[in-house]
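Suppose you are handed a protein chain with no further information: no name, no annotation, nothing but its sequence. What can you learn? This example shows the usual starting point.
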Amino acid sequence: MAENKKTGLMDIFLIFLKIGAFTFGGGYAMIALLEDEFVDKRSWLNESEFLDMTAIAESTPGPVAINAATYLGYKLAGFKGALAASLAVCIPSFAIIYVISFFYERFQQITWVASAFKGIQACVVYLILSAGLRMFIKMKKNVFNVSIFAVVSVSFIFVSLFGISFSSIYYILICGVVGVVVGTLHNMRNREDGGAA
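A reasonable first move is to predict its three-dimensional structure. Written in structure tokens, the prediction is:
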């Protein structure tokens, strides 16, 4: 994208510093803020690129927030952009946890702090749900995508209702393998059709 070349490191650093400071609940809660900032406000990514970034950030090892920051920073300004984004998104969390560590026990006993965290928990659920719904709405509605979404949703609900221990990592790995198999079969069929023509 042409706009990416004009993106300054300071812009990237400040945006990710802001996102890191106001994101509670981890990387999944951050997805909605990233989409708003990079797709809606600044048009640095289109919707398809953003969905790809989210899939990559969730599939690669490490926290989703740092993976997303590194990916977006690199896409916008190369290695320096990745470094600036990754540092910026970590600084607020590091600073807050460092300060809290000095008086953690007293911090837990403050009534208004406990109440604030209960409110934040409800907000985090909303942020994650809204990000998921927005991504689903923008996703291409072909048979494969809708089938994967339906199977994973039903499996997730079933596992949650019956208290079965099943890591989200398995969902990602299984869906990745299914995607590779279906993609390979699709490419083979296209080659056969092309050869027949």
